[in-house]
Amino acid sequence: MDSGFRLFPEQGSAEAARVDALYYFLLSVSGFFTALVCVLILFFVVRYRRGAKVNRHNLGTNVTLEIVWTIIPLVLTMVMFGWGAQVYFDMRTPPEDCMEIHVVGKQWMWKIQHPDGRREINQLHVPVGRPVRLQMISEDVIHSFYLPAMRTKMDVLPGKYTTMWFRPTKPGRYHLFCAEYCGTSHSQMTGELVVLEPDDYAQWLRNAPDDVPLESLGRELFQQFRCHTCHAVDQQTSRCPPLEGIYNSEVTLADGSTVIADEAYLRESILRPAAKVVAGYKGVMPTYQGQIGEQGVLQIIEYLKTLEGASPASNQE
Amino acid sequence: MSIDVRPTRNYLNANYSVWSWLASTDHKRVAILYMISLTLFFFVGGAAAVLFRLELMTPPGDLVISETYNKLFTLHGVVMVFFFLVPSVPATLGNFLLPLMIGAKDLAFPKINLASWYLFMAGGLFTIAAIVVGGVDTGWTFYTPYSSTYSNTNVIATAVGIFIVGFSSVFTGLNFIVTTHTMRAPGMTWFRLPLFVWALYATSLIMVLGTPVLAISLLLVAVERLFEVGIFDPAIGGDPLLFQHLFWFYSHPAVYIMILPGMGVVSEVITCFSRKRIFGYTFIAFSSLAIAVLGFLVWGHHMFVSGQSIYAGMIFSFLSMFVAVPSAIKVFNWTATLYKGSITLTTPMLYALGFIGLFTMGGLTGLFLATLAVDVHVHDTYFIVAHFHYIMVGGMVMAYLGGIHFWWPKMTGRLYPEWWGRISAVLIFFGFNLTFFPQFVLGYLGMPRRYHAYAEEFQVLNVMSSAGASILGVGYLLPLAYLIWSLKYGKRSGPNPWRAKGLEWETPSPPTTHNFVDTPVVTGPAYDYLPKDEGELEERHVPVESAS
Fold it and tell me: I need a labelling partner for B496 at 20 to 30 A (CA). Which of A294, B68, B189, B383 fits?
């Protein structure tokens, strides 16, 4: 984050280099056509100025020319589309081996939770070289998590998880901005991304030995809200569906449809249980909307992920 | 030899009373009412820009507080978009010229035309009132749930103002469509229409089809604020992205409302001052319609990072690319029109050529935003701010001013001082580029838009931008001064000082109340400029009546 004058931003990841390559391509195409149009206009204005003795024999409309300058932009823009879509697809598809970090946006701060429970505000520490996937949600209005050095951003919505990922390749400190206007102190909702060498990162994690892992915090909440009285972890009861192995499993609903129990489904079932009732059960669970904050919901989901299924699948850690 | 160019009665001196203006259904008087009101709104919006460009000279927020800054950019956006750009060319030049260009005595519905101005003023005053009693801070985009639940400012009053002004757009659009279909003079076939009329027609289609959706969206925001019905706020069961879909379904086509009429102006000016028929008439005419239709299919390109699905993003990116084709066709055809012309760099021509250059840059940078991977980085940064100002200010405002200068003699019967006109056109061109080109760089560097305070490394480019804005401001004040001056002291222009083609130039300047004594009969194509005109042109600046 050096503050000298520059025309192009720092590249903090390999994906940033891919975006820049596409940007340079667009710059050259645009530069060429802008120059072409400007040079032609200036040339015609001088050569065909009133009073100049030049041949003004008029050709009229030329259909061949019209077709040529229809096809050329069409082909060029299709190249831009294809190239842009390919890079975009990769930017939106996280690799398998991501470390996962939770982000909660609220007016006007970023609250960040690492898997081992380390929490920070307006700072995001990550190790160099590892892909990081951010699972994000807002507590109020729409925000947008923007890391210019990684050339990526994603809106952070209330009521719905969004994700983004990046793989930093260079240690350093980079800008973190909120890019979606979110009210009075929008321009203060900034922070920094701190990319550390793996050893430094391990050291940084050790600096806060009191941190409790997220799933432990989740278990505490699970008990505090007395979820276990109905969703008994050890035995099946008739009132509520069992939660062992629930994460990423297929759930059949009362209307016969099925859903995958991902983070979005689990969050909805905690906050608005009546929205999707599991087949064979009555919708007796009360709503927890307004009682558990978004960070708490994320912690409970982390806890649910650790519950082993009755028929252990291969996806256990 | 020329005829006496000053009829005893024209639309301006027919009656001098205030009431005769406020109750006039003459399309030319309504156009003048619009022009005066739009000028006021333009300088209100511009004043807000002056204040926030001053604020942005330094990285910390030190001139005004954040609330004020947010209200300033909201005021600037709301006033400039809804109360200047959308009505600009259609409501002033379009109102004045459409009947004259097609050989009609007025628009199809003169009373509705006057009513549209009253609606416009009612909406405008409502919005100004909302600003005076405390302002609104949602940005002109009114994104939910901020606007519907969280903002403590006058959202509803502003939304009501925009809701009302929307009806004025619909009235104007409807009037233009019916007029173009039913009131063309004998012989004025569709493909003999000036391209300005084609552009107005395409614009009117968008106004009529798109504006109701905006009105509905803002109504829903108001309903959610007032009655806490869960529409957009997920906390009460709504969906925040629904608003973005509805808003951009209107507001992307609205971007084309803010450029198509300008393209029409440019076609008129370029042909006149290169003494040539337009190159590729039908291609330009149909490209206007193509832009209008495509405009309704690309709204999702505003939502590539909103949480919309990857595949929806790809389809919207694909469709958005097609907008480049009709835009490129227009630019190439205008440029080709210059070829083998007989070119003079008058004030309107300088504005029109400036338009082509700036619109080309604005259009090409639109491709950066349509390209998915690049948009993820530059979305909601200064890159987009620069891009749409190149289209709306570099494009539309240049075209508006070019058109005002081109038809000023027709509207007022007076010539403005030509050299002052050229100076203003050049000042605006350079001031504009100095203001907005640095913002492309700022955007790619990552400076988000709507930031009251910013990181230090962005300061140099921001100072350049503010310096450019001060030049731009002077450039805009100049025409205001000399055009008003010319009303009293300008030379009389005669009916056709540019020896331009088109039915409007066959009427006296200013035209009589009912435009034409006898309904004209059209026998040839538009822009029937002939090489033999060249000899006559040397006397262009000699006012016609003194030559007689």
Answer: B189
pTM for this structure?
0.89
CA distance B356 to chain A (A): 8
Closest partner CB to A87 (pick from B275, B373, B537)? B373
Asked if B324 has any chain A CB less than 8 Å from its own CB, the reply is yes
B39-65 pLDDT tens trace: 999 999 999 999 999 999 999 999 999
The alpha carbon of residue A237 is apart from the nearest alpha carbon of chain B, in Å, by 31
Q: In the predicted model, what is the mean pLDDT of residues A184-188?
A: 94
Among chain B residues, the shortest Cα distance to A53 is held by B342
Dihedral class, residue A114 (left if φ above 0, else alpha if ψ from -120 to 50, else beta):
beta
Q: Cβ separation of A18 and B373 shorter than 8 Å?
A: yes
For tokens 């007025």, name the residue.
B106
Residue A60 pLDDT > 90: no
What ipTM does this complex have?
0.90
Does pLDDT of B2 surpass 70? no
Question: B495 in helix, strand or coil?
Answer: coil
Mutate to test the interface with B, among A44, A106, A137 (most CBs of B within 10 A): A44
Best of A86, A153, A190 to substitute, by most chain B Cβ atoms within 10 angstroms, is A153
Is pLDDT above 50 for B74? yes
Task: Please tell me whether residue B10 adopts helix, strand or coil conformation.
Answer: coil
Average pLDDT value for chain A: 87
A88, B376: Cβ pair inside 8 Å? Answer: yes
Q: Which of B471, B382, B392, B384 is nearest to B435 (CA)?
A: B471
Tell me the DSSP string of chain A. Answer: ---S--SS----BHHHHHHHHHHHHHHHHHHHHHHHHHHHHHHHHHHTBTT-----------HHHHHHHHHHHHHHHHHHHHHHHHHHHHHHS--TT-EEEEEEEETTEEEEE-TTS-EEESEEEEETTS-EEEEEEESSS-EEEEEGGGTEEEEEBBTB-EEEEE-B-S-EEEEEEE-S--STTGGG--EEEEEE-HHHHHHHHHT-TTPPPHHHHHHHHHHHTTGGGTS-SSS--SSS---TT-TT-EEEBTTS-EEE--HHHHHHHHH-GGGSPBTTS---PPP-TTTS-HHHHHHHHHHHHHSPPSS--TT--
Q: List B279's β-bridge partners, or say none.
A: none
Q: Which residue of B lies nearest to A68 if distances are taken between CA atoms?
A: B329
Nearest-CA neighbor of B79 among B32, B148, B125? B125
pLDDT in tens, B454-464: 999 999 999 99
Q: In whole angstroms, what is the distance from residue B45 CA to residue B47 CA? A: 5
The shortest CB-CB distance from A177 to any of B61, B444, B448 is to: B448
